[in-house]
Design brief:
The protein is of the alpha/beta class. It is built from 16 helices and 19 strands. It has a 9-stranded mixed beta sheet, with helices on both faces. Strand 9 and strand 10 form a beta hairpin.
Length: 452
């Protein structure tokens, strides 16, 4: 694949944990000294510009064993009623702290947002519309489990102005589905997409995962055959992160059935080869989009950005997280709500923000964050330009990046003066290039997933 295939030497050298770099500093640096008072103050300091709202629904009908998201199985209605009410109240708290907030993007994630139910989702959406102004052309996206996607839910989402849906597929092979406790037929997935398209929600993303138990190159190729026939606007294709020390449900996966590192690398190559050959453009580390999709346009214009929600089309000054465990990315730092739904709801019902941890960012963080963002999005960064913008001398800064010479020697990075380029060979390992600029990172098992 044009030299991108990883050699056995690369696999051995980089077989270690590394952050996913959806933020910098990463969530591993969050601490309990950041609380509700800080969050409110940081919200009050927001500039008058468009902002993203992210709403987290931490419930699913049943748990998939591979999943590392903050979610739990829930079917009773009373807890769902209480959670929807808490979201409404948190919206009020944000509106009081930022009276003139202009919303550019709304993203529903989870868990499974549809588990909240059509009526509750519609209620929360109406309250969002009542409390905040929407920017012209603003996008609203929602993550969807096709197995729980009836006509009432589709109608509620279309009525709430949803313009894009991301459907979880992971893999269509039955043996793989059994191994991850997620049975989902091609017919069920196709029916869900059909209902959304009939309702006028035209933009569809599909999520796939490689490195799953019992997954092979042949089975993954068959999954790609089916997924490509659907012709979604975007694919997000993630490497399975086996972190059973963080998520006990993953202990139900037989580790002997997981593909090894050479197989994982070959799977990543296969995905890229197939999707690019089908007309999709590679976007960052793990996304693919049709040339007409706004994500591909943003990438071609150098406007692609990375956040906790993955790759995004434009750089907005803030992401405000609503719901249990939701993370806010604000100019002064990151703040995260309580992950426990009872603690979250208790704080909100008392008229308080539910912030339980976070980290304030400083000038050095912002410099390194921009470098890491450019590497993750563009696979290149002009260090002299970035350092000048942050009023830092580039020569001593570059001299302090101790791992950079090894990355150059290993063929992952090429230096043209003070401009860094990630090579084709280094592209799958770009997180290790970013790690060279991470002043907080201490490699250790148990904190991050494998970087391949």
């Amino acid at each position: 694949m044009d030299g991108t295939n990883l050699t056995r030497r690369s696999l051995a050298a980089y077989d270690r944990p590394v952050p996913r770099y959806t933020s910098y500093p990463t969530a591993a640096q969050f601490h309990a000294a950041v609380g509700p008072v800080d969050h409110r103050a940081w919200l009050a300091d927001l500039p008058d510009a468009r902002t993203t709202l992210y709403l987290h629904v931490p419930f699913c009908k049943q748990l998939c064993w591979y999943c590392a998201c903050n979610t739990s199985a829930m079917s009773r209605t009373q807890p769902l009623d209480g959670y929807a009410q808490a979201l409404v109240r948190e919206i009020d708290l944000v509106a009081e702290a930022v009276p003139h907030l202009l919303v550019g993007t709304i993203q529903w994630g989870g868990g499974t947002p549809s588990q909240l139910g059509a009526a509750r989702l519609a209620e929360v959406s109406r309250h969002l519309a009542a409390r905040f102004d929407r920017a012209s052309g603003a996008e609203t996206s929602v993550e969807v489990d096709p197995r729980y996607c009836d006509e009432a839910f589709v109608a509620a989402m279309a009525g709430a102005g949803v313009t894009r849906v991301s459907l979880g597929v992971q893999d269509f092979d039955m043996d793989v589905q059994k191994a991850i406790n997620r049975l989902q037929s091609v017919e069920v997935t196709g029916a869900a997409i059909g209902r959304f398209r009939e309702a006028g929600v035209r933009h569809v993303n599909i999520d796939l995962v490689y490195g799953l138990p019992r997954q092979t190159l042949d089975s993954l190729s068959r999954t790609l055959d089916v997924a490509l026939a659907i012709r979604p606007d975007r694919f997000a294709v993630f490497g399975y992160a086996h972190v059973p020390w963080m998520k006990a449900r993953q202990q139900l996966i037989d580790v002997s059935t997981l593909p090894g590192l050479p197989e994982r690398a070959a799977m990543a190559d296969l995905v890229a080869e197939r999707l690019v050959a089908a007309g999709y453009e590679r976007i960052g580390l793990d996304h693919f989009a049709l040339p007409s999709d706004p994500l591909a346009t943003a990438a071609s214009r150098g406007r692609l950005r990375r956040s906790f929600q993955g790759y995004v089309v434009e750089e907005l000054p803030a992401v405000i997280g609503l719901g249990a465990s939701a993370i806010s990315s604000l100019p002064r730092g990151f703040s995260q709500n309580a992950s426990d739904t009872k603690r979250y709801q208790s704080a909100i019902s008392a008229g308080l923000f539910a912030t339980e941890r976070g980290v304030a960012t400083h000038a050095a963080d912002r410099l390194r964050a921009e470098i890491i963002d450019r590497l993750m999005c563009n696979f290149a960064v002009d260090l002299s330009e970035v350092c000048r913008r942050h009023d830092v001398a580039v020569a001593p800064f570059l001299a302090g990046i101790a791992e950079l010479p090894a990355l150059v020697d290993d063929g992952l990075v090429r230096c043209d003066g003070e401009r860094l380029h990630v090579t084709d060979q280094g592209r799958p390992l770009v997180r290790f290039v970013c790690a060279a600029f991470d002043q907080y990172l201490a490699h250790g098992k148990g904190r991050h997933s494998c970087g391949i």
